[in-house]
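Wait, can you check?
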Amino acid sequence: IGLTLIRVLNKFALREKRANRLAIDSTGIDANHASKHYEKRIGRDHRKYLKLSILGQVEKPYLIEDFACELSHISDVRQAKPLIRRIRKNKIVFADKAYDCEWLMKMCEDRGSKLYCPIRKSSRNRPKGWLRRRMFDNFDKKFYNKGRNPIELMMFLLKHQGLVIRSKKVSNQIKEMAWKILAYNIERMAKALQFLLRVIRLWTAPT
């Protein structure tokens, strides 16, 4: 099963759970299970990490709408490019300072959405770029924190049960990561449904 089909399955699972506020973040995934001490003793360089970027909903049940994964030291901005290309209109995408980039903001604006991130400090009184200056002038920290913090929770929920990649080939590692994201979304929706059923039972229980 190809990566494209897994993405289609993920979109199908989330077809009724679309959100207008999203957040983006990235992390490293260790796909090599060899002991670091053993690798150091035999003089072997540690293998590269998988770089994972996720685009998640900032409201419960905290679903992951899209992702990008590759074996590379690619920057956060470059890996975010395909994610921004695939977003729809009328979205607000919260991000940290690593995504402070004029052309990425412009790409988001061209799709009828907005990239909301703090502007990096510099020696200039005002940043370069019209969109970066507009963000600098109108940035609301409370609004940003409310939209940004849930992405950290999503990363924790994705990893806390032990995010282990067992495949050896890089292409299969990326597919395995995609399956794990799909499984994460299904689990989150199942838990949300269980909670809703409990509430309904309490409402309909005889007094």
Summary: The chain has a mean pLDDT of 84. The chain has seven helices and five strands. The CA atoms of residues 35 and 46 lie 9 Å apart.
